[in-house]
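G., the chain you wanted modeled:
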Amino acid sequence: MAETALVIAAHPNDGEFGAAGYCIQLAAKGWDVYFLIATNGAKGTEDRNMPRERLIALRREEQREACRRLGVKDVFFLDHEDSELTYTRALLEEVVRYIRMLKPYAVLTHDPHDIIIRDSFINHPDHRSLGTAALDAVYPTARDHLNFPEHMAEGLEPHKVREVLLWNTNHPNLDVDVAPQLDQKIFALSAHVSQFGKQDDFATFSRERWKSEDGRYLERFRRVVLQF
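Predicted structure as C-alpha cells:
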C-alpha cells in the first residue's frame, strides 16, 4: 500500500513554493500526494480590473494545473476568505476531517511560529493561522476519537500522522536537494499565471530563491517525527 503525504497550504501556490520539489520526489517513489488549500485566493492580484469571482475561479484552476504538473493525486479547497483566515474550531474540524479521510503518513505545512522569517519576509497571518490549525489537527485532535465524534458515524476513524515537515522556518533541520526537480517545480509554479505571468525573470528569480550559499538547490524544512 502506498504511503500518503498531505500538503496543507493557506493559498494557491504556497505548497509549490514550500515543498514542490520534495513532493515530486515522494510521487516518484510511489507515494500518493494530496493538496489541501484553505483560502480562495481572492486577494491575490495587483490587477484592479480583475473581477473577484473570476480571480477565485482562475486561481483554483491554476492550482489544479500546478498539481497536475507535480503528479499530485488530488487537490481540495476549503474556500475561506483570503487574508481573513482565523483559527477557529470550525477550521480545525475541516483539517481533521481531511487527515482522517486521507490518512497521511506525513503532513507538510507552514511553520506558524515566527512572524519574521530569516529576516527577509513577514509570515502571512493566513500562514500562521493555518499552520497552527494543522499542527493541532495532527496532535492531538485527529488521533483522539473524542474530538469530533460525528466523524466516526461517517466512517472517518482517528488517525496518527507520523511525520510533520514545516516550510519557511527559522529552525530547519532537514535539507532536501531538489536540483533534479527544480525545473519541474518552476513549471508547476508557472501555472499560476495570475500571480507570476508578468514576471519575465520569474525562472531566474525562482532559481535564486532556492540556491544555497554552497550552490545547491534546497528545500529546507523543520522535520518533526512523532514518537508515539
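The first strand starts at residue 4 and ends at 9.

Shout if anything looks off.
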